[in-house]
Amino acid sequence: MAVNPELQGRVFPPTAPYLVGREKIREFSRAVLSTNPINLDVDAARAAGHADLVAPTTFPVVVQEATLAQLLAEPDAGIDFSRVVHGEQRFTYTRAIVAGDELTATLTVSSVKSLGGHNMVTADSDIVDANGKHVVTAISTLVVRGDED
Amino acid sequence: MVDYSSLTKGDVVAEENFHLTRDNLVRYAGASGDFNPIHYRDDVAVYVGLPGVLAHGMLTMGLAVQPVSNWVGDPARIVDYQVRFTRPVLVDGATGADVTITATVGALEDETKIARIDLTAKFNDETVLGKAQVRVNLA
C-alpha cells in the first residue's frame, strides 16, 4: 500500500496541552546522557536567567509523539507503521522549553514524495506555549519502505 | 560563555565518546515513550530482518548534541538542530556500543553571531548521522 499523496498539506487538530514537568526534564536529560547543570539543577538554570530547568534540545520529540500518532492513525494515510524508518529529524527553536510550559502541537504534512519505490513523508509539528506563542517546530521525515523489499 | 570572535571555521570544539548499553536503550524508551521492541528485544529485531537490537535514532541524536551543549554552557543557545539517520547503531547485549562524537565549527554567520557546529557521529569507524548540524546563538 502506497502513502496517499493527498496527505500533502493536510493540517491536523491541535493535540491536548502537554505540561512540561521538572522531573520529566530530568528523566529525559539522563536518558540522553546530558550532564549539563541547566538541564538538571534548578539553581544553575535560574543563575543562567531561566525560570526553571531547560529541556534538552531533542525533548520536543516527547510532545511530537502525539502528532505522529495522529498521522499514523489517519484512516486514508496508507502508512504501514511496520515499514516506517525515521529518515531525518530537525528542531527549529524560537525559544527553549522550560519546566512549567504548557505546550500544544499542530501537525502539518508538508511533503509526500516517492523515491525509488519508497515514500518519504515530512511532518512538521508546530509547538506553541499557553499564550499561543511559537516555541519550536519539530520536523520529522519518515521513510515508508515499498512493498517489494 | 563562548566568545564568537574566537572561533574559526574548522575548529574542533568538542569530542566525546559515549558508551551505550541495553540499559541506556530501556531508559530512553521509558523517557521518550518510544517502546518499539526492536530497541530492546533481540527476537523481534531478528524477526524484522535486523542484525540485532538497535539504539533509537533519537537517542543517538539526543546524545550527539550533548558535547555542544556542554561547550556552549547554556543549552538554550541551541536554536536549531538537524540530522539524517544514515546507519544503525547496533547495541550488543554483552559489550554494548561506543559512539564517538566530534563537533567542528562548520560555518560562522557574522551578522547574527550564530555558529553552525557540524557533528560527526561514529560507530565501528562508520558515520551513523548525516548532515548533523547544530546552530548556536552566540550573540
Concise account of the structure shown:
The complex is a heterodimer of chains A (149) and B (139). Chain A is 23% helix and 32% strand.
Account of the 3D structure:
The complex is a heterodimer of chains A (149) and B (139). Chain A has helices spanning 22-31, 37-40, 42-47, 60-73, and strands at 18-19, 84-93, 102-115, 118-128, 134-144. Chain A is of the alpha+beta class. Chain A has a 5-stranded antiparallel beta sheet with strand order 1-3-4-5-2, covered by helices on one side. The radius of gyration of chain A is 17 Å and the shape is elongated. Chain B has 139 residues and is α+β, with helices and mostly antiparallel strands. Helix content of chain B is 23%, strand content 37%. Chain B is built from 4 helices and 6 strands. In chain B, a hairpin with a 4-residue loop joins β3 (97-109) and β4 (114-123). The longest helix of chain B has 11 residues, at 22-32. Chain B is elongated. The mean pLDDT of chain B is 97. The interface between A and B is medium-sized, with 33 and 33 residues.
